[in-house]
Model the fold of this input.
Amino acid sequence: MDASSDSDSDSNSDADSASDAAARAGVAEQAARVGAAVAQGSFRRDIPVETKSEKTDVVTQADRDAQARVIDCIHSSYGANAIVGEEEDELKSVPDEGPTWVIDPIDGTNNFVRGLQVWCTAIAAVRDGEPVAAAVAAPELGDVYVGDDEHVTLNGDPVSVSDRSDPEACTVVPTMWWGRDRRDEYAAACRAIVERFGDLRRLGSAQVQLAMLAGGAVDGLVTNVHANPWDTVAGVHLIRLAGGTVTDIHGDRWRHDSQGLVASNGEIHDAVLDAAQEIEAVAEA
Done:
């Protein structure tokens, strides 16, 4: 085969990959909108709340109903693909081979049951362990973020991470949840942020916060906790597409099985990593 044939083959492969990512992004958006609509039907209604592993780890029938509808939506287009999901008997880790969907029917259930509007349905399409498309729908905020393999949009308009480079002008999020036996790390996270950056936000939905970083509303996000894939993979994909940086607490490229999550607009990443190291030092003490 001559060089031109090799080039043609590579171009075709790239085109096929882009086409597949675009198709999966469309299904991710549809599934996120469907799941969010199901959940929204129970929002601020008198629904029973169950507790899982901790008093703040809650689940409702709305979570289960939304997840079922999301799975139906995905399987109508990709019936043979595996599902990683928070509720019921779905897979709990991301396979390293093959196509997979990672879903969270209601990310921010604590907010949801309290009537707070910061919650979402998050969907990521993954191939061989790496996300290729994602969507985050936050219906009470009126926001839908979508990413294929090239761009991120918010309500149809292209977005990117912020360009702020002065830490004192930046806002950083301590994300995920430190259990009752790890509150010294939670306190260290807040201290590390307020001593380095202009301000702190904690909104109670990891995927909403990750999406907001992709859209430039916040500038960094940090945790030393090993996060579940349904809480992270979709938002991480959006941040990377939007020009941001996502690593583990050691500065290595983040994966779905990494320890900790350090995300930023790229401009302040070293400072956010320093905050992560301060949190982890408390964990190791």
